[in-house]
Amino acid sequence: MVNKMKIIAACGVMGLSIASFSAAVTAYDGTNCDAPGDCWQPKPGFPEKIEGTKYDPKHSKEELGKQQKAIQAMERRNAKRAEHFKKTGEWVYDISKLE
Amino acid sequence: MVNKMKIIAACGVMGLSIASFSAAVTAYDGTNCDAPGDCWQPKPGFPEKIEGTKYDPKHSKEELGKQQKAIQAMERRNAKRAEHFKKTGEWVYDISKLE
Amino acid sequence: MKINSMRFLSAIALALMVASPYTMANQKLDKMSKEDSNWVMPGGTYDFNVFGEQTEINVNNVDQLRPAWSFSTGVLSGHEGTPLVIDGMMYIHGPYPNNTFALDLDNPSEIVWQHKPKQDPAARAVACCDVVNRGLAYWPGDGDTPPLVIKTQLDGHLVALNAKTGKEYWKVEVMDISVGQTLTQAPYVAKDLAIVGSSGAELGVRGLVSAFNVKTGAMEWRWYATGPDEDIGLADNFNSENPHYGQEGLGQKTWEKDAWKIGGGTNWGWYAYDPDLEMFYYGSGNPAPWNETMRPGDNKWTMTIWGRDVNTGLAKFGYQKTPHDEWDYAGVNVMVLTEQEIDGEMRKVLTHPDRNGIVYTLDRETGDLLRADKLDETANWVKYVDMETGLPVRDPEYSTRMGHRSRDVCPSAMGFHNQGVMSYDPEQQNFFIGINHLCMDWEPFMLPYRAGQFFVGANVWSYPGPKGNREEGIGSGQVKSYNAKTGEFEWSVMEKFSVWGGTMATAGNLVFYGTLDGFIKARDSRNGELLWKYKLPSGSVGYPLTYTHNGTQYVGINYGVGGWPAVGLVFDLEDPSAGLGAVGAFKELQNHTQMGGGFIAFSLRGQGPFDDLSVGEYKPNN
Amino acid sequence: MKINSMRFLSAIALALMVASPYTMANQKLDKMSKEDSNWVMPGGTYDFNVFGEQTEINVNNVDQLRPAWSFSTGVLSGHEGTPLVIDGMMYIHGPYPNNTFALDLDNPSEIVWQHKPKQDPAARAVACCDVVNRGLAYWPGDGDTPPLVIKTQLDGHLVALNAKTGKEYWKVEVMDISVGQTLTQAPYVAKDLAIVGSSGAELGVRGLVSAFNVKTGAMEWRWYATGPDEDIGLADNFNSENPHYGQEGLGQKTWEKDAWKIGGGTNWGWYAYDPDLEMFYYGSGNPAPWNETMRPGDNKWTMTIWGRDVNTGLAKFGYQKTPHDEWDYAGVNVMVLTEQEIDGEMRKVLTHPDRNGIVYTLDRETGDLLRADKLDETANWVKYVDMETGLPVRDPEYSTRMGHRSRDVCPSAMGFHNQGVMSYDPEQQNFFIGINHLCMDWEPFMLPYRAGQFFVGANVWSYPGPKGNREEGIGSGQVKSYNAKTGEFEWSVMEKFSVWGGTMATAGNLVFYGTLDGFIKARDSRNGELLWKYKLPSGSVGYPLTYTHNGTQYVGINYGVGGWPAVGLVFDLEDPSAGLGAVGAFKELQNHTQMGGGFIAFSLRGQGPFDDLSVGEYKPNN
Ligand SMILES: O=C(O)c1cc(C(=O)O)c2c(n1)C(=O)C(=O)c1cc(C(=O)O)[nH]c1-2
Ligand SMILES: O=C(O)c1cc(C(=O)O)c2c(n1)C(=O)C(=O)c1cc(C(=O)O)[nH]c1-2
Ligand SMILES: [Ca+2]
Ligand SMILES: [Ca+2]
Prior knowledge:
heterotetramer; A: about 100 residues; mainly alpha; two-stranded antiparallel ribbon; elongated; C: mainly beta; five-stranded mixed sheet; 40 strands; binds pyrroloquinoline quinone; binds calcium ion
């Protein structure tokens, strides 16, 4: 098959890129594998981690958690609805009517 | 012509109706000419003028005057615009730019 | 009233001074209107026959009619009226926000220009019957002033656009939404005047008609429907040939006190014009409020057929069809001008299918009442019109009054005929009338007048008439062929819903019309037989036009359901008495069509500009 | 992550328990999809070939195609996708407010049922790209549960309707608009599951895909694009055949700290399904925010082609096409399943025209990358895809970064291909691809994340690519025929505007598509020759379908311009960088078309249900 041994080739490329990274800005091409599937390379002049740099957006932890909260709440509500439906054959959307 | 002498016939009808008006409710047919073109007849049990009756809507004089005020203001503005246009060949809608 | 009297005098002076250029532009438009390639005003021609002389599409091949191209206006709500076609360009109007588009008929996939006015959205809240607009006017230009497309905006503006560029040429205020006034009407060009009416009688608006000089935007004359005679604009010989119609002083005398100031009589329907007589014709609408108990008197001059001199606007005659209206039988409907041999005499007449269920024929020079026939025998508020007095002979059983619910009154407030146009085949000498077969219950209530607020004072429940299917809410429409000479209906067919937009006839012995549930149909105009139909995207409240372009005859129509019958659909209402009674009457409509808005052109086999496949294609420049 | 793991286990258990009824319903839909009279899912069939086997309409007679009937949805905005046709009924969807209509194909002038959900209008404010919706799913029913039409609502609901009555059968919450989540996608039925994705990566929404049991409304599994492996749902053998794609831990490791929680990777595109492998395929979208400087790392598993087991949802493979995306090359585009002889071997493949300008062919069993060809040679961010590593070899000149305006990057953020579908002629073995020929300038900026607010961080200016006419703003589209075996484009034509909605092919050697400026066109699929077109009311962002009803082959299409390319038109924007750069690119569009919304069915000579003129007529009951 065509794909056999790709991982080895990829690692070869990776080794090579790592070597050239800090040496020459011109060699930057955005790709430099640390491991299979983890090949991102910061652009010349840009940090590898943005925390504490001028690019740190300083997101609020609370904001970052909001999506999961919303999803968990929906999942709970949906579970109640489906449970009621399985029992009664009637779909009641309004959760307040199920509690 | 067909229409000749109609006015006379109409007046004839009118005279008759007036006579029967207060006499018999059943004779009411909504029409009873006081003069050509002025034939309205109040319905049995309803007043000829509503002012002071329970049907008086007691409109506010100010409200009744608002339409004319609005129209006169528009006419003044339009006149200014048209005047400016006749003078300059340019239509300026915004009155504040004309004053 | 000083302003009005002064204007009156200056209008006359001006008319005398500039008589000759007036006549030229007038003749130009008249001439253009008679070319197959043009549709220069709502009625097609000044006589408002809504008739195409073309015979390319005819009874034998109409079944091959197919869409050639289409254009969405980008707006929903009722698309009333029909576009204009002038010198290979089509001008398309639409409901609020009243965008206007110019399309090149050689390649309608490119919009030559578009005019999209910004309007105060509050205008929508004072429109009685959906935010409709009925069309455009065209003035052909002279050496100095460019050809103009003239439009109304719901917010009360009358705007003249350069027909070549779409740029605003002038823009005047005609109505003020803060006092409930709007414009939905197609303006009208006669001579060098743009004539325009008014809307808002459901908000107590005192009706008026105005004329603006197309070249300067200056108002030339303005006359009211109610109030002092100086405001109404009565010529010296007003109704001199029919004094029993009434003459002086009635605009005040037939009202109690100031009631005429909020007494309605708007005119938002159609105009017709007789270039020989230099007279124009229209109807004034319902008195306000609908609650008749609140306005004792004949309420003149609401509900009146007007014949006015175009130069001064002064009325030569006025015939009030429904004195002291008790049913909202607003009298604004279309006036179709023809010549008819009536009682052995050739007369210049106007024929007018009134909302009150009667089709009237008047001598349009004198105002003489020549015929008054019921549009359908089910009209019951009136027994007949006394031809001597001109007065309707009422059946008190169907009168309305405070404290009483009147039942089964026919027509309903929507009328047996409303804003739709009526076509006339001059060869056959028959009129083709789209009819609402609607009756109602009516119950008045009291309310005070507040400027800018609804001032109706009646609850209404409309429903299909006795020939329809009241349970299912269908059978509310008819199409009829009417012979004004005999007063006979030569044929009559039922329709599922009111035929709201009206009809267009052609010399191919065809009558076309759109339906509320979204068909355009063609019938044999000689016998009513259904010959063709096409399912439009949305119901139509407009009417068809026809034009010939590059040797091909097209029939086109606006679609986009709306207007009064579809307010339930447009505003998502459910109470049957909502929408002034329309919601109940047309509750079935939503199961047949949804909102939309656009224009479709049809031709035999769908031939058209895109038969050349390269039209509208991208041409790479390398 | 407890919830997810538990669900995972129960999903497997359930899958094992109810395996046989699953398979039955599955086969039923598969079988129905192959009948000429049906169009049961967005791609026509599970392999998403968007192909009609019919030959009644073919290269020799397509010029006789004419509208047979039309239906306005009553809504403006972009009408993406195509209706479903099942057992003589057509199910029509639309953009927000996401009304659904069932029409009887024997009489489409009556709406059999309509479902008009009330939604929080706030949903509109968090939709990135107009309030579009891409279509419906159908589940054919068994003895116990009725046939269902399954729909998404912009407000995040997934709703199952009884296909016969339109009544809601169940309704679950999938997305929450208060945190910026929406649904625009067509849900998808495989076995007894309704699969649905997510929208909102432009608001930092973490993407997920979920499956609900059609019979109970219960969620069976849910997997994310980013974060811990337990959330992402990796099968034990994930990428075992292509370990260089990456395997464990990358959903967190390739992000800095918590960035994966707001990292995008939504999936709002299309699904395809292989009933033999019981695997389904789709792409996850762009990482959030667009500003790449704010998210160091490869940002797995955004931009990924997924092959997942339908029973558990677990991923057998994932191939990330654009690691660490810098251009919004969201990877959600359509997957078309075919068998191809590639390098001498017959393979079950999926072909995917990606937004990044490359069309990928993968073995759909193993995930092996078989081909990666530029959709147009003007794609410049990438030199080529290294077939050994699977990695794009970038041209740093077109990379983007803070403090820099990148210029002339091709494709633009809108991609060379976006939400449009792609058709495949199994006889010719060619793909027909509608292409956006668009490039851009791009300039990032910083911003903090706030749940429910836009989280983009880049200004974009899009414009036609080098083969177009940048000055006039036209020449932004192409249609191409692609041979996956050779990687050759057999023909290619330019279009005035991006071909946004995609193509539908038929065995009549035809390829059909709609254009943004409002044509539906038919080309000879063998050579690209334009054979027919019709001017629709409004531009199309949907794609055609074909079905045979009562012996007549129809081609139909949604019209109603909108979606990302038309946000300028829909929301009346003028700044060229507004609408995420679309306004400038499509500024010319408004001179060609206006909004609209509906469906038109075409047939040879326009034959159809209303050939019988009595269909839809009022039948008086006396
Ligand atoms: O009295 C008025 O000023 C006025 C205005 C309008 C209008 O402007 O549309 C209508 C009416 N009345 C009216 O009575 C009526 O039946 C009506 C129907 C329609 C329509 O477009 O469907 N407009 C109007
Ligand atoms: O990332 C997302 O969640 C998301 C959602 C959508 C959508 O739901 O319509 C689009 C996009 N992104 C997007 O990137 C995009 O180009 C796009 C185009 C369109 C469209 O319908 O025209 N939607 C979307
Ligand atoms: Ca009225
Ligand atoms: Ca996106």
